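Database export, one record per block. Field names are fixed; values are copied verbatim from the stored entry.
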Amino acid sequence: MWSFFSRDPTKDFPYEVGDPVPGLEDRSVWTLHKGKKRGTQDEVSIFLYDVTKNSETLFDIAKTSLKKLKTMRHPSLLHYLDSCETEKFLYVATEYVEPLAIHIENMTLDGQQRELFLAWGIFQITRALSFFNNDGNVKHNNVCLYSVFVTLAGEWKLGGFEFLTAHGQDTSNPLPIKILPTLEIYDPPEKNDPTKLKAVTKCSSDMWGLGCLIWEAFNGPLSNQPALKTVDNIPKQLCTLYCELVSANPASRPNPADIITRCRKLGGYFKNDLIDTMLFLEEIQIKDKVEKAKFFSTLSGHLDSFPEAVCVHKILPQLLTAFNYGDAGSAVLAPMFKLGKLLEDEDYQKQIVPCVVKLFASNDRTTRSRLLQQLDQFIHHLQNSTVNEQIFPQVVHGFMDTNAIIREQTVKSIIHLAPKLNYNNINVEVLRHFARLQSKDDQGGIRTNTTVCLGKIAAHLHPQIRQKVLVSAFVRATRDAFPPARQAGVLALAATQQYFLLAEVANRVLPALCPLTADPEKQVRESTFRTIKGFLGKLEKVSEDPSLKEGMEADVHTATPSLSNAAATWAGWAVTAVTAKFYRSHSDTARVQHAPKSALSKPGSLEQPSSSSMSTTTSSVTSMTSLEHSESASDYDPEHWDMTAWGEIDSSAGTTAASAKSPGSSGSTHATPALAALCEDDWDNEEWGTLQEQPSAEAELASPSETWGSSWGEPHANSAHATLVRARAATHAATHQNSNDSLGGWEDGEFEPIEENADENNASKMDEMRRKREERKLQRQREMEARRSARGQGPMKLGTKITTPPPF
């Protein structure tokens, strides 16, 4: 039983005492130590008093200060946690703090951040003294550099309650005697002048101490009282107040409440962005929605000038609390994500990720829009499992949203989500929605951005899926009635060329690009010519050296592109020209007034000279990798894209829609404009039908899958020629030579490079073409006469006109 009463009391003290912290030597009855809470390992501070090494008087002072610390509660006072008394030591556990003297000595802040930090700290101590003098009717009597402590959040907390007294407690001597000699330097002058004791007020001694604290905050520890007259380092806004605080007349020193009122006015020392922000967050629960929305909309712009410790440990927790338990809503996202960048990954997973998952489940369009816009700021902190299981199922609903802005932002968000999506999500779900949007969405900008996004995520697709999808999707885009969509399709083909087999380039890509060389839009034509030159350059090099084919097709069947593939560098211009930019959709420009024009200005990236020559040192795979890190803020660069409303272009069906469908039937001639004008009248509809039918039949036969064939595939042929397409597709191989003849009789000599004196040969070529046309016409006439005579030899039908054969 006796062992129970004699057990060690420290066993019930749930804190472990750590290493000592310097800064309080000879200036406090306590020694400061680091500490941790048992179990949670949370950091705390331990104030320790050694009973065996100090006198009974100091021990009584220590126990009195502990009693005051327990009973005094205020946001600007040191926060008490627990205490323990033994025969040898007195332990007091508080929140984790650091002496202000040590903090200022080691502080790395400078410029505006340092000024805001000091202003916020002085404001907090002034507020604590107002609480003591006005609300508690007590005097601290020990305000100095060594009675103030700084938390992890950069907040100044007032401690050192060893000499705290009640006002009017001892009228004969209102100022206590400080036993520690090093603290006598902070005694006000009236302590040694009995004539001024009658003028002492309830706050005069603490205001003198506040003046000393302000001087030390800007100059360092005070060595003697005459140094207080030096005001060179004190801000001009604070000089007048400082002189009042250190006045020799105690009656002229202001009340701390009056100081706060004066300095909080416009132009005052306490009127700045940091103090305004901190005071608003303290009262955020009583603010209305309008005030909160205005506050959060401006907060992001101020965070860069705030000290990092204040942002991470004070502002961010307040934002999370406002989001979780208040009605802050999506307005808190921008500052929350900006502050999240300052966190360690482990802290980010605990604090920010749960909020992100919760927000993605919201049905509010504003919240979803802001999340999608800022996805690049937090996506790299999310685990793959979190993205696939909790975030992507919510994002995918945006593809079917009735609001065009949400659909467009959802498409753009896939750029950032693609590296973390699993096989099914990216190769099935994403492509299924992309196919629908590209072929059926009524917004030209969304169709365009779908093509651009598909080009950017091509590297993340499975090789087999990629080979089936890319060509069909991009060729489909080149048939779009929206000019930017056609240009996006052309440049996407160029940017992803390393994923195409050379046979596919020759049989599908180049035939699809050739009609666009006669596109009504100049920038579409320019992009097409450059892309064709690049593809022809690859084919020409392989023709000269077949051993290069394996290297050029190295990335077709690989999941990870090879960085050593230098055969793709010619398409680098395409990567930086359009696929690195998103087009502005009609929904984004609905509120902007534009000049009435339908032609797009040429992007600045297309002003570069044509780069048909290929480098052998840089891979376009590297360029494609850089696309994944492009900032969304550059999507709408006014220096590159015209501000013309896409709706005006999309609605010009008279010329634009026709130009999107006609290239497939009119862009296969290499003759000069003058030659084309001469020959145009002589081509009949039957021969144009042959030109129209071949691409459609080939696309139908070469379609890789039924799903993509219906969505990404080539436009259907005219109903007038549908039967003819099916009939000729069955005999395509047998009539290949005849179709070549109908194209004008290509000969080997016509594949020669064009010479300088090409104009001199036009006359002979025109004569040759006329002769061949006349021969074909005569041949057709003979065939028609033979068919008529064959019909006449059969059994007579009712209503058939009997004609008398001409006499011989």
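Remark 1: The two ends are 149 Å apart (CA to CA).
Remark 2: The first strand starts at residue 15 and ends at 21.
End of record.
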